[in-house]
Amino acid sequence: MKKFILLAAVMLISTSSVYSQKKKDLLDEINKLRKELKTTEGELNDSRKKEKATITRVETMEAQVKDLKETNASLLANMGNFTELSKKKAQNLETSLNSLQEKDKQLKTINDAITKSDSTKLATLTVLKNALGDQANAIAVKNGSVLITLANTVLFGDNDKSYAVSAKAKGILGKIATALNAKPDLKVIVEGNSNALNIKDKSITDNWDLSAKQAAAVVRTLQNDFKVDPKRMEVLGKSEYGSQSIETATRIIIDAKFDEFYSLVKENMKNGSKE
């Protein structure tokens, strides 16, 4: 019995010792696990922080990529617009250049026609001055026309109401007619200016009538006596309102035919545009 009790006591002690050792080992293992868990939790938190930071960076990069794409699309669109605008500007410049070249041709055509017309007038002026001799001071160029101013006393005598061309005047008109017949492309306007305020002659109504009759008398003399083509001549009566001085005068205006001048310019422009 004693042996049994002793054996039981020994076994109890041994079991208690083993239990104590296992408990200690278990506690150590638990502490170890706790440390590992704590470490793992720390690492997990670090990983979560890193993941969050990474997600933030990714989102930032995605936003930047989106902005870059939008910027690139905008740049491409602007480049397209700029290219189209540059193309239109180039086309407009080419159109403007062509228009300027065309206008330059037209201006040259007009200038050439004017130069030709001016040369004709200068030649006519020279011929008339040579023909009239001492009467040459009555000739001038005004407003693009050759102008011959003859006092009414020279053409019609001392009677300021007369519209009969004097013999002396026919000598002068004959010289003018010779120059006009040498230039058949020029037209002639005879402008009468009268200043007979007291008209008693019943054949004359007023100064309008008198100035027109005096101009017509000059044209009639050029036609009948010196064979100047009547189709080239016109009569213009200005009464006393056309006078530029106290002494009345009749003016013979010699100019190129403007309809022919216009036709020449128009034809040259048409030919120039075909080149």
From TrEMBL:
* PROSITE patterns, per the entry: OMPA_2
> Where does the record place a coiled coil?
16-110
Pfam families of this UniProt entry? OmpA
Cite the InterPro entries for this sequence.
Bact_OuterMem_StrucFunc, OmpA-like, OmpA-like_sf
Name all OmpA-like domain ranges.
Answer: 143-260
Record carries keyword Membrane: yes
Official protein name in the record: OmpA-like domain-containing protein
User: What is the originating organism of this protein?
Assistant: Aquimarina aggregata
